From TrEMBL:
Pfam families, sorted: GspH (PF12019), N_methyl (PF07963)
General secretion pathway GspH domain residues: 49-158
Source organism: Psychrosphaera haliotis
Protein name: Type II secretion system protein H
InterPro entries per the UniProt record, alphabetical: N_methyl_site, Pilin-like, T2SS_GspH
GO biological process, one term: protein secretion by the type II secretion system
Keyword list, A-Z: Cell inner membrane, Cell membrane, Membrane, Methylation, Transmembrane, Transmembrane helix
Length: 173
C-alpha cells in the first residue's frame, strides 16, 4: 500500500489555533472597547467645548449676551444637560429665547453618557465674562462612569479647562 501525501491541518493543530485565537480575542476585546469609549468621550468633550467657545466668541465679537442651555424643543431652556444644548443671542438678557432672538448653534444629545452641570444655563456677557460662578460640566459614560469621565470647567471669565483625571470628577453628584 502506498502512503497518502495529504496536506492539511490535523485536529490538534486546529484546536491549538482555535485556542490561540480565543486567548488573543479575549485579551484584545477590552482594550478595543476602552479605545472606542475614550474616543467617544473625547468627541463629546470637544463638541461641548466648541459650543462654549462659540458662545463666548459671539458674545464678545457681537457685543451681545449669549446663552447656552439644555433644551428639549429648541424653544425653552431645561435643566437636564443630557438633552440637546442650544446657543442663542439673548438680546434682552432675560435668559430665555424670544421670537426675535437667533439660535446660533447647538450641541447634540448624546446616548450612553450622563452629562451634569453645576448650573442650569450658562450666560456669556459682551465683556468676556461667563456671568455665572465657575461652572463644571461633567461627562460620564453610563456603563463605566469612573474610568473615562471628563469634566469641562468654565471660569467666571469664560475660559474652558478640561479635567482628565477621573479621581477629580464626581459622577454621582
Amino acid at each position: 500500500m502506498k502512503a497518502s501525501n495529504v496536506k492539511g491541518f490535523t485536529l490538534i493543530e486546529a484546536l491549538v489555533t482555535l485556542a490561540l485565537f480565543a486567548i488573543i480575542t479575549t485579551s484584545v476585546a477590552p482594550s478595543v472597547s476602552n479605545f472606542f469609549t475614550r474616543n467617544k468621550v473625547a468627541a463629546i468633550v470637544n463638541n461641548h467645548s466648541s459650543a462654549l467657545q462659540l458662545a463666548r466668541h459671539t458674545a464678545i465679537s457681537q457685543n451681545v449676551f449669549v446663552v447656552l442651555c439644555p433644551t428639549k424643543d429648541m424653544q425653552t431652556c431645561d435643566a437636564d444637560w443630557n438633552q440637546t444644548k442650544m446657543i442663542f443671542v439673548d438680546e434682552n438678557a432675560d435668559n430665555s429665547l424670544d421670537a426675535n432672538e437667533e439660535i446660533i448653534g447647538s450641541a447634540d444629545m448624546v446616548k450612553g453618557f450622563t452629562i451634569k452641570s453645576t448650573q442650569n444655563l450658562i450666560r456669556f456677557a459682551p465683556v468676556s465674562t461667563a456671568q455665572t460662578v465657575n461652572t463644571t460640566i461633567r461627562i460620564c459614560p453610563t456603563e463605566d462612569s469612573s474610568l473615562h469621565s471628563r469634566a469641562l470647567v468654565l471660569s467666571n471669565v469664560g475660559r474652558v479647562r478640561i479635567v482628565r483625571d477621573p479621581a477629580q470628577i464626581d459622577c454621582s453628584a
